[in-house]
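Data availability (excerpt). The following record was deposited with the supplementary files.
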Amino acid sequence: MVKFCDKEDSLRDLFNIEKPVIGMIHLHPLPGAPGYKGDGMERIIELAVEEAKILERGGVDGLQVENMWDLPYHKPENIGVETVASMAVAACKVRDAVSIPIGINCHINGVIQSLAIAVAVEAKWIRAFEWTNAYIANPGYVEGAAPKALRYRSFLKSDHIKIMADVHVKHGSHFLISDRAITEQAHDVEFFGADALIITGSSTGTSPGVEELKEIKKKVSIPVIIGSGLKVENVAQFFKYTDGAIVGSYFKRDGVWWNPVDEERVRKLMGKVKEIRKGL
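Predicted structure:
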């Protein structure tokens, strides 16, 4: 199979640790979003920095900054410059508040915007919900970003920024490509230059299937990350097969994504992860 380069160690390049765990920074509504009340960026940044420090203190290995509260999300071509500017300002403050690396995720599938922000704030990776093929998300038809994004990354001279790309991303219908197995779609993600592959459940906080994860691991050579549903109760099971995780809901009070980060829950899960790492 043709490869852009050897990417089996892309996660180690970023985190220098086995099976890294990335915590999410869910930015409150940004200027331009319906939920934004016109109160300025100060409180948004204050909350983001506070949660970033809690997550780092709790032991996570990296942070992903995203505009989670900008509901309902735009399609990529409609994401405004105000969103990009606001995310860059907030992400820069988060970066300066912690010693662990940060990444960017601009909803929904704002891969070009994420790359622009990542270059501006010196983030280490971005997340792409739809890297290849297409699906129907809540805002409508969303197509793969790889052709434009890889050219844009080259234009920005930022090939060092890693691409973490979903296959069968949550919150959408994939009936358009239902004649192709998820393992074939996973191969597409790798073939079109992603550095790591993300697998999720059907919605925020739900877990993917273990058997599905095992099959995808057999199909690709890039790292495979679980992107939703990881918790203390299932981390030992999933970490037999996954190369890392992105965790949002579990780290929040009562496991609900819109609640504040709960440091006890962070420490509890990361304690279990560290135990697993010792056995590697």
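Summary of structural features: The longest strand covers residues 21-26.
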